[in-house]
Here is the input.
Amino acid sequence: MARHYRTGKQIEIPISNELQAVLDKCKPLRTKTRNKKKNDVLIPTRFGKPYTSEGFRAVWQRAIKRWMRAGRDHFTFNDITMTALAESKRLSASATPGDATVAGFSEFDAVVRAEATRMAQHYKVFYGLEKSIRMMISDAMEDAHGADWWSTKIDPAIKQKAEQVLALEIDGGLPQRSDAMIDYTTFGQLRQIISQNWADVFSKKLRTEKAVSTVMTNLNRIRGPIAHFSPMSDHDVERLSTPK
Here is the structure.
């Protein structure tokens, strides 16, 4: 329960899973009073006492001044509330059926769930893009050299590495995820295959070898955060959304 800051009436504030997670994290951080007894105040003063409204307002104003001295715009509690509401609506509007699975895991940190929802669309784009690149290479090589192109036209070192990856996965008890050996190559090896077969295969389908190498290098760099489940930068999101 809390009191409305204008009317003074008691109002009930529901505690969401996200808010409860924040409160639980704050519990171990509660300061102790001078007599070493644990304080029940969630955000106490340095003396272990609750803030008065005037005291909290003073702390808030000092924080705002430090923020503005750094060259940033002034903001209010209402700005924070409206920004959070707008972000919540944005995430709800962009949610897909798959997002419900993430939302159902309340044990995940709220920030992690929101980040996963935001990144899911970019993961899907890269999945489709990488699969399309592998299919393009396979189709082009098969058109030029027949169905046995992997055995006859691929660098032995690339074939050996791909076979090692397949063997490791099988030895690890994983099911074979593909019958096509090209699916066991790295992005760097895909770029090698294009380069090594540029003259007789890919020069007829793609612009320039240098342009392809640049695009593949950039995509391989973007692939890093995706492979390690890290958020992508706005720059990388834009590059992925408008590949050239």
